[in-house]
Amino acid sequence: MPKSLPYHPFLIESLRKKPELAAAYITATLEEEAPEPELLKRALSDLAEALGQSKMSPEQYELHLKTLDELLSQQGSDAIYNLGTWLNALGLKLTVAVSTDTEDNNVNAEIPAQLTV
Q1: Domain ranges (residues) in the chain
Q2: Which CA distances in Å does 25 have to 20, 50, 105, 113?
């Protein structure tokens, strides 16, 4: 019987090796139609583990993780801007793109296709 690899170490290593996969991972999390309450926090923690440890000192990494709870408890535009800053420290950026749903695309046809914060 073949042995399987534990999922979490495989996920972290995959996200570390391919930043494009890390971006797709958080995008898919944000696009969940009925997300579980802890889903976003878990995905952001995974990103921090995969990308933060190699970009930050151990102290900076721990502080970055501690700010996640504070960040997720914020409301309004501060939360959005702070999430963008938090992701930027990991080498990612927060981007808004046009929905692929044709009904949504027709409403805002003249708005640029992508906006980056």
Answers
A1: 7-92
A2: 9, 12, 23, 21
